[in-house]
Amino acid sequence: MKKYYTIIALTFAITIGRAQLPNPALIGYWHNWNDINAPYIQLDAIDNRYNIIEVAFAVPTTPSDMNMLFTPDVVSSGVFINKVQTLQSQGKKVLISIGGANTSIDLTSTLNKNSFVSSMTAIINTYGFDGIDIDIENGNSIVVTGGTISAPASIAQKNLIDAIKQIMANYYSTHFHKLLLTMAPETAYVQGGQSAFGSIWGGYLPIIDGLRDSLDVLQVQLYNSGSMYGVDGNIYTQGTADFIIAMTEALIHGFNTSGGMFVGLPANKVAVGLPSCTSAAGGGFVDSATVKSAIDYLRGKGSQPGTYSLSNKSAYPSLRGMMTWSINWDAVSTCASKYQYANNFEHIFEVRTDISTPELSTIIAIYPNPTSGQFTILLPIENATIIVTDLLGQQIIKKQVTLQTTNLQLDNNGVYIVYLITKQGTTTQKLIVNR
Predict the structure, then answer these.
(1) In DSSP terms, which residues pair with 132 in a beta bridge?
(2) CA angle 111, 113, 114 (to 5 degrees)
């Protein structure tokens, strides 16, 4: 019997195409409001070097009702959607950030969890966001009430993990690619787990652990922070190169807590999060030269700038990038030079991020489709790379082509994704093999 299989996997992660985050990444939070000190910027007027834009914020209707709301300020919903699409056409990713400093998220009940899932799914679909950012800074969902990192006792924590998984599954079922996921916890909720595991201390660790397979970037806020332990057992203070290095290595190296071992993340899932200027945060601003010295050392491109010595002498050359609160603060010249943070990112990573693999508007012609195995691809451009993956993102074929017609074969039934990658961008097409 001839048949084909569609596989839906929550941990689906294609490393190319639409699910891919820019690398290196300059991640900036964008204010969905006007502030006289950090004025509103039209979304499509953001400095081109920001290639991941976190829209702040989706918030609950009330502290007890987790029906999440997001309404564009200054412009209409239609205009906002068009501006999101403009950024996406340039290869940038636009995510909706959940929470913020003034919001509490409480998912202690099934009703609240279901409201959270359905309303966030609707927000994502309405505005066409590429992903979600968890920037929850208050509420039961990020508080340890017992258990361990791998088995939390808090129903609110477990409900948050399950809710994010369900939102991602909802997205995949309609878009057929992965919803992007970032997190921006405060230090007490992550590295603070080294000194204690309870209440706010280490409160994000079960969430990070429960979602680590889906997580794209962890960007801990290295500001508004008390002193924290490094993995070397010493204490470090915000606003210094040592703090940046010690806190960042802790995320990659991992560390022990009274709630169990936190297993570190790959360096390419970690970004350094700092305020863009002195007024952007209550504390933790670091001057550009110090930031560069810290990140150069983390990436193995510079000497040790302070007292903290990396435990991994090979360093972390694949560190993902930098995050800042906020784009709006970076754009003003009243508390630092204009776009000082973006300028420093460009200087550190020695790249421009004006465009990061935009999607091509052209369509790959594949025939026959469905196919019994053999198929022909008619390419709209010469000198391209063809990659074929299954729906789990596993690469089946990779071929460099210089002709506009190429013949290929797949031996197993299934649904595949064909990628055409050129210097101008990337385009994809679904292929069905029905033998």
Answers:
(1) 96, 181
(2) 65
Q: What is residue 396's predicted lDDT score, i.e. its pLDDT?
A: 85
CB within 8 Å of 31: residues ≥ 6 apart: 38, 40, 41, 56, 326, 327, 328
| Residue pair 328/40 in contact by the 8 Å Cβ criterion | yes
pLDDT, greater one: 392 or 290? 290
CB contact at 8 A, 161 and 153:
no
Domain chopping of the chain, boundaries: 21-349, 365-433
Q: Tell whether omega for the bond before 326 is within 30 degrees of 0, i.e. cis.
A: yes
* CATH code at 21-349: 3.20.20.80
Please give the helix or strand (H or E) that residue 161 lies within, else none.
Answer: helix 155-175
May I ask the CATH class of domain 365-433?
mainly beta
Per-residue burial over 351-378, b if 16 or more Cβ lie within 10 Å, else e, is eebeebbeebeeebebeebebeeebebe
Distances (CA, A) of 89 to 41, 84, 194, 223: 19, 9, 42, 33
Q: List the structure tokens of 245.
A: 């290095």
> DSSP code of 360?
P
Question: 61-104, pLDDT tens digit by residue?
Answer: 998 899 999 999 999 999 999 999 999 988 899 999 999 999 99
Q: How far apart are the two ends of the chain, measured CA to CA in Å?
A: 9
Residues annotated catalytic, as ranges: 137
